[in-house]
Amino acid sequence: MKLVKYLYYLLLAVSAVLIIAFYAMGTPETMVSTILNWAYVLVGIALVSMIVLPLFFKSGKKVQKSSLIAYGIFAVVVLVAVFCSSDAALEGVTTSVEPTASDLKFTDGGVMAAGLLIAVSFIAIIAGSLKSMFSK
Hints:
Number of domains: 2
Radius of gyration: 19 Å
Mean pLDDT: 82
Structural class: mainly alpha
Distance between the termini: 33 Å
Number of helices: 4
Order of helices and strands: HHHH
Strand content: under 5%
């Protein structure tokens, strides 16, 4: 399991370097595509980990059931974000290369999915804390 720990530290270090580079550069617009590509890599790693890791760590029916529920919640949140996303460009934003409608829809859906997943995470944390508080 040390490999997973070192991989985590490597991903964290690369993210920190990219964030520092983003804010250290005079024109952060040049780093936007790099940051977006890194975000795609991180989302891909998260999705693969979410699907593959439970295969290696089987703990019982209760864990498998909660994993399936988590997959379902994730799928619903992403689908809601994709269906609610827009392909319209933001007002007043100019770029050197015009993005396509699919790029705008994908980016908008990603931002909405991230926001929805953060909200679902906070609700789950609060609900879990309340459940454990009242079950004692």
